[in-house]
Amino acid sequence: MIETINQSQETTILESFLELVKSPYGDFAAIGKLSHVLNDPATLQKIVAFLSLTPRGKQAFVDRPLLGKIDLQQLHQLPNHTLGHLYADHMIRNGFTPQPIKEIANDPFVFLGAHIGETHDIWHVVTGCDTDKPGEVQLEAFYTAQLDPDRLFLALLAKNLLKTAMYEVELCEQIMDGLTQGWMMGKRAKPLFGIQWNRLWAIPLEEVQTSLNIASI
């Protein structure tokens, strides 16, 4: 059972949450601050324990696999139905660049954050979630289903619901559809955490999705 937060933590969390609500979408500094105060060591330990229930997840915390250097132009030369090509196309179209290669200390919490961060856009491609607001909500719901009991993604969903209610209520139906679809997809899918995606670049995306029980959307 997750320990309840004390009054001091509650105040810090609420302040960080409101700061994120007021921030523009994609403010990674504000997201990182909220993550730091929400996912305390006790929570992170429970996430690690949950992810370690599968053989792949358990081994990932031993091997700590990272993507390594990614050449988007080279990946883009792969057949257009492969994971590598579609990932590169996603990154190039959106003007994204892969995260820089990092040295991972022998710390499961550091690896957890690094792995989730550098594979975020791969999860976008594999799940079919767009990068617009409903698509990001859909992927956040997918994360919430897959990374029990990560408090951050639940908070990000709450933040986006509040911002929708305050500023873009006309997106309500799309946001709610994304949330429900992402949650159900995440519950049905096999765990994505710990997959060594750089070994799957040449595999057709549809084949990858089928192997993970993810229906193309």
Instruction: Name the beta content range.
Output: under 5%
| Number of H- or I-type helical stretches | 12
Number of strands: 0
The residue-averaged pLDDT reads 94
Determine the oligomeric state from the structure.
single chain
> Between the first and last Cα atoms, what is the distance in angstroms?
35 Å
Q: What general form does the structure show? A: globular
Order of helices and strands: HHHHHHHHHHHH
Q: How many domains?
A: 1
Q: Helix share of residues?
A: 55-70%
Q: Would you identify the regions where 5 or more consecutive residues have pLDDT less than 50?
A: none
The chain-level structural class is mainly alpha
Major beta-sheet overview: none
Round the Cα radius of gyration to an integer and report it. Answer: 17 Å
Description:
- The N and C termini lie far apart (35 Å).
- The chain has helices at residues 7-22, 28-38, 41-51, 55-63, 72-75, 83-94, 108-118, 120-127, 133-146, 151-167, 172-188, 205-211.
- It is globular and about 50 Å long.
- 63% of the residues lie in helices and 0% in strands.
- α6 packs across α8 (120-127), α9 (133-146) runs antiparallel to α10 and α9 (133-146) runs parallel beside α11 (172-188).
- The protein is built from twelve helices and no strands.
- The protein has one domain (7-211).
- It has 217 residues and is an all-alpha fold.
